[in-house]
Amino acid sequence: MTDPVMQRTEREDFQATSDPALQESADRGEVNLLGYEELYNLWERQQWSTQDLDFTQDKVDWHERISPEERYQRMYGLSSFFIGEQKVAEELGPMMRAAPTEEMRIFLCTQIADEARHVRFFNRFYDEVGVLESDNLQDRLAETSAHLNPQFNVLFDEHLASRVDRLARKPEDLETLVEAVTLYHMIIEGMLALTGQHFITEYNEQQGTLPGFVDGFTKIARDEHRHVAFGARFLRDMAQADTRYRDAIQRTLVESGPAADGVLTPPWYDEDEEPEVFGYTMEETKAFAMKCLERRLKVIGLAPAAA
User: Fold this and answer.
1) Residue span of the structural domain in which 173 resides
2) Directed axis angle between helix 36-45 and helix 211-241, to 10°?
């Protein structure tokens, strides 16, 4: 049986990111993580354009093939990504300035560009498919926010924003930077975003719906794996440099755990009436997320129990 974490990500371009979650050897803590310059070079090779995507069939699927009830259920995932991409794009500036080396800062500049492109992807999808009534980016972000659950805001607006605000005031605070990277790259991108991307993409492929969305979303996932690979490299380097950074990673994982767990559960989910979300139980979804996190933690040099 194929390892579920490896499904759909065995392509050469995904494997090239060196994200530990994509490699079975990470179960033994054995992954050759790319360096910061190598990650930048990979970014140059993996460029793509939102303008090249075709949403013609997606518009037909959304309005004629997908029922109103399913459209409503799908909105939690879409809204979480759309708003999440916008929020993290804004938070990366102080993190980039706080990075201790120029190579790290240069890579994080590429990530800011990626996150902006991801926002444009969702905005164009919403616009051309006719998902919302609003007719501009700012109003779409406000309209779609009604589909989020409270834990989403706790994770982004409390846990992440508080660290980033501290970095904006005190960029030399490397312990806070370690906490922010743990939240951003390991939890928000590594556990939540890539788990959602895996199951949302797989469901659309099984149903034969939204081909333009699937095309772009797959490219976004590849970007995210590259970002997470940076996070794994940075956290491994910091954990090896000083035990207080290792402690900061562990502390942040524990503190953010309840909110992260809540984000994985849609607000409309009822365990008795809706035991599955698009073909998978919540237990299966959370197990997938935890498997990915465990592999990354082993490569960083932390025991899975730390999470």
Assistant:
1) 53-306
2) 170
In a domain, 195, yes or no: yes
* Tally of domains in the chain: 1
- The CATH number of the domain holding residue 145 is 1.10.620.20
Residues with Cβ within 8 Å of 91's Cβ and at least 6 positions away in sequence, in order, are 160, 161, 164, 180, 184
C-alpha count within 13 angstroms, C-beta hemisphere, residue 35? 5
Q: How far apart are CA 36 and CA 75, in angstroms?
A: 36
The predicted structure's pLDDT at residue 259? 94
- Terminal CA-CA length for the chain: 27
pLDDT per position as a tens digit, 55-113: 999 999 999 999 999 999 899 999 999 999 999 999 999 999 999 999 999 999 999 99
Contact 299, 31 (CB under 8 A): yes
In a domain, 65, yes or no: yes
Collapsing DSSP to helix, strand or coil, 277 comes out as strand
Give φ, ψ of 278 to 5 degrees: 55, 45
| 57 found inside a domain | yes
Please write the tens of the pLDDT for every residue from 16-67. Answer: 999 999 998 999 888 999 999 999 999 999 999 999 999 999 999 999 999 9
Report pTM: 0.93
Which helix H or strand E contains 280, and what residues bound it? strand 280-281
CA distance 245 to 9: 31
Dihedrals φ, ψ of 208, to 5°?
70, 35
**Within-domain flag for 10:** no
Q: What is the DSSP string of 7-33?
A: TT--SHHHHTT--GGG-GGGGGT---P
